[in-house]
Amino acid sequence: MTAYEHLLKYDIKxxxxxxxxxxxxxxxxTHPTSNEIYNALKDDNPTLSKTTVYNTLKLFEEKxxxxxxxIDEKNAHFDGDTSDHAHLICTQCGKIVDMEITMAPKVCNDxxxxxxxxxxxxxxxxxxxxxxx
Amino acid sequence: MTAYEHLLKYDIKxxxxxxxxxxxxxxxxTHPTSNEIYNALKDDNPTLSKTTVYNTLKLFEEKxxxxxxxIDEKNAHFDGDTSDHAHLICTQCGKIVDMEITMAPKVCNDxxxxxxxxxxxxxxxxxxxxxxx
DNA sequence: TTTTAATTTGTAATCGTTACAAATTTATAA
DNA sequence: TTATAAATTTGTAACGATTACAAATTAAAA
Lengths: 133, 133
Description:
Two copies of one chain form a homodimer.
Chain A: H1 3-9, H2 16-27, H3 34-41, H4 50-63, E1 67-69, E2 77-79, E3 86-90, E4 96-99, E5 101-103, E6 106-107, E7 114-125, H5 127-132
Parallel strand pairs in A: 3-7
Antiparallel strand pairs in A: 1-2, 3-4
Helix pairs in contact in A: 1-2, 3-4
Chain A binds a DNA duplex through helix 4.
């Protein structure tokens, strides 16, 4: 699916900035921060503003088009893949990698809560860092 | 278990500040922020410094004596209960409530990752807010 | 004691994020 | 098309949680 189609699917008017940002998220599975997205895009989009990247990601999140991973205390990381999967943040290199969930966790819900989103994340050492050491 | 014993268990030298902070965490299951802890304690502990609360919580986290919940993008919340359980943050009132996990999630690990901590958190509406509306 | 190490404290700095208002672009109406 | 309104983008300034740092205090060791 193109970024353009993805935006329409989530009821977001596809401006050129929004397309470029969504396109980056869909094609870079690195769970980037706002700043990383801005730095990656600014050369090809010289008029792009950092504020626009922040605003746009907030809009995407509100519309459900991206996930805001609060896995890292320092920065918000974003994921264009909104399907069910878990994340591991490597405490050595800081990379965030996707992990497949093979069994959904059952959570006791007798308090009458209404669950909208479930996040699973892990802290540990990623495969690459393990190989090196 | 007293705060004092809890500290010893995690190999933390029990200074008076550390005891007071750990005691608050063990007896208040509200998942407070650093600031909330500081504000709750400062009247009875007039010389307590905000920096000490931050430093102490970081130490607790490193020693594994508390969990740092990065469930909320704005502030770090701390949990003195390090046993396996999930959290729900209410998108209406902001409260964080404990939830019991009845089935542990199985996460695909064929990349050779080493998992140290697993966090599960949900976003939604808590029971109290549901009752009101 | 005296000396050293550990802990605590207050202030200042850092930095990710947001508020705000102006500028620009896009949509709508005449 | 042109005029007007609405939406979006932009840059700057402010905010606020957290941390760096060095001095002050406390605890431990000699």
